[in-house]
Amino acid sequence: MSGGTVLVTGASRGIGLALVCELSAQGWHVLAGARDPAAAHGLQAAAGKEGPGTIDILRLDVRSDESVRAAVDEAASRVRGLDVLVNNAGVFPEEGNESLESLPLECFEEAFAVNVVGVARVTRLFLPLLGRAAHPRVINISSLAGSISSKEDSLNYCYGASKSALNMLTRTMAAELRPRGITVVAVTPGWVKTEIGGPRAPLSVEESARSLAATLGRVSEKDAGQFLDREGKKGATPW
Length: 239
Ligand SMILES: NC(=O)c1ccc[n+]([C@@H]2O[C@H](COP(=O)([O-])OP(=O)(O)OC[C@H]3O[C@@H](n4cnc5c(N)ncnc54)[C@H](OP(=O)(O)O)[C@@H]3O)[C@@H](O)[C@H]2O)c1
Prior knowledge:
- This protein is an alpha/beta fold.
- It has one domain (5-228): NAD(P)-binding Rossmann-like Domain (Rossmann fold).
- The chain has six helices and seven strands; from the N terminus they run βαβαβαβαβαβαβ.
- It has helices spanning 14-25, 41-48, 65-76, 106-130, 157-177, 205-218, and strands at residues 5-8, 29-34, 54-59, 84-87, 137-141, 183-187, 227-228.
- The chain has a seven-stranded parallel β-sheet, with helices on both faces.
- It is globular, with a radius of gyration of 17 Å.
- NADP nicotinamide-adenine-dinucleotide phosphate is lined by residues 9-10, 12-16, 35-36, 60-63, 88-91, 114, 141, 143, 188-189, 191-192, 194-197, 201.
């Protein structure tokens, strides 16, 4: 299914911006969350283009209740219900190769504030709008770095722990929200050339966004609580 209403957080750049462009090209009405819309030049340019879909930019900082509440009000003035919420905003606050002894512990706080608490905040405040859609879905953008069973190296302490926590949050929310008809899944976007993925990543943002757009259109109740890859396959990334 395509052409419904979707909110993408962290839409100022990277995978979020490419996903907004892809979904809009497919005819979706996209609400694009950015914490500083005036600085999001690529997003402003995308929203200004004529296309099959619509892009409405919302000011949305996932760390702030006040900001997310204002974004909910703004969204409610533009759409009747929300078919899909994509919790994409994320941070990688460390270098990645720190030792346990050299790691600034504040990096844990930042990673958890955005990658975990931010997802809980945005999802719970958007529940009323999700509840007005026929088959609402919440797509949490996770990472291979959150996979506990495949973890062998000593890299990415804070980011990895936060994405594992996001996976547990996904399972917990999926169990609570399933009886209300809201399907929650975690999806990996692949290793993608962005600020987080770095220049050595094999995938472009457009390639990742194309697969993610197809997957979020296909997610159904039977996927609730699953950890999917960007093509929507279960088990490709182990928990
Ligand atoms: N790239 C990869 O290889 C890869 C692999 C696995 C998972 N992921 C996940 O994919 C998602 C997107 O990452 P990316 O690779 O596209 O990274 P990116 O280019 O660094 O983009 C991160 C996005 O998150 C936004 N953001 C950060 N803090 C925010 C906040 N407090 N409120 C709202 N937005 C906030 C940023 O907005 P500003 O412009 O305002 O900073 C930016 O739009 C993340 O969840 C990441 O963990 C990426």
